[in-house]
Amino acid sequence: LQVPRVPSQPTASSESRRFTNKHSKKALKASLTLGILLGMFFVAWLPFFVTNVTQAVCGCVPAGFFDVLTWLGYCNSTMNPIIYPLFMRDFKRAMGKFLPCCRRSGEPRPSAISLSMRNSNSGARAATSLKNVL
């Protein structure tokens, strides 16, 4: 006797595997970005805070060294706008819409009216009446 086989559904399992791989890649990339941002924060600000506590306890830190560590922390703030576009595609797309240097050649610049209408809860009728007024 032969037992009839039930046809397997390889497409469903491969789709779910593909879905899982896609989300695990996104989670890995998000973890990497967060790790880099936090690592940069600690490298930039930890020496400042340790020196600040040392200065409060013994008062033996030279003023020039303290200033250098303060500026190292400030440099962290300048690194964030560089790190975000490198690792986050959504951030890159959003900035590309508003910065002329990052916009594609065929892409028009959004107008202030379209931006305000997109962010408000008004419908298409209000948008046309506002355009007629202006």
Automatic annotation (TrEMBL):
Keywords: Cell membrane, Disulfide bond, G-protein coupled receptor, Membrane, Receptor, Transducer, Transmembrane, Transmembrane helix. One of its GO terms (molecular function) is G protein-coupled serotonin receptor activity. Gene3D superfamilies: Rhodopsin 7-helix transmembrane proteins. Residues 1-84 form the G-protein coupled receptors family 1 profile domain. PANTHER family: ADRENERGIC RECEPTOR-RELATED G-PROTEIN COUPLED RECEPTOR, IP13425P-RELATED. One of its GO terms (cellular component) is plasma membrane. Signal peptide: none annotated. It is a multi-pass membrane protein. It comes from Smithornis capensis. It comes from the Eukaryota. This is 5HT6R protein. The chain crosses the membrane at residues 27-48, 68-87. The keyword Transmembrane applies. GO terms for biological process: adenylate cyclase-activating adrenergic receptor signaling pathway; positive regulation of MAPK cascade. Its main location: membrane. The keyword Cell membrane applies. It is found in: Cell membrane.
